[in-house]
Amino acid sequence: MIELFNPTEIEQMRPAGRFVADVLTALRAKADVGVNLLDLDALVADMIAERGATSCYVDYHPSFGAMPFGKVLCTSVNDAVLHGLPFDYVLADGDLLSVDFACSVDGWVADSATSVVVGTPRPEDLELIRTTEVALEAGIAAAVVGNRMGDISAAIGETARAAGLSINLQFGGHGVGRTMHGDPHVANDGRAGRGLPLKAGLVIAIEPWFMHSTDEIFTDPDGWTLRSADGSRGAHSEHTIAITEDGPVVFTARA
Question: Count of H helices and E strands in the chain?
Fold first, then answer.
């Protein structure tokens, strides 16, 4: 079911967005060569407890997951491109880290992701990250009343193709509200002018994620982490936004 939220509810969602943004800002500062993924997860668990928030991930067990997720962060490194289950891994020089985080504050959910290179970056990794960010900006710009869902998807897809990238459509954005994942699905490619009409009060997460040289993925033995089929690296950018009469509101914008 697709929900539309009234202006009062939209305002009530802002604190969740601010908290998620603050967490990702702290993670970008903390992620460095020599830092363990489990320490990043523990840091955020402490931040959640201090805020009185609720993790959306710990008990999350959709059909594509082998078991409840059990951690508060998705930490995807290099060829791990989505849903990375934190484990005992120390970040090395040049690692491309994507972090995805969602939680509930006062009953409202926000969801966001960012990618960063620790240590010495490869230029092609920085370009890949930038492409996801540009695609996210393009998708948000298309999220206006009177457009259709296909306009968001097409804007993302056009950005990827302009960079010479192929696009995986198995996972994409989604509705957000009282729960982390709801309708509608927001594909990372599509046809402009097609699909669901965009109306004020619709709250969605837009999340382009791309890989260097493939659109194929497989699931790690941990039952969660998705990796590129050819070992190429991936990057991921995501914001939770509300569509309003005055344009898109980005709840998870970082300072």
Answer: 4, 14
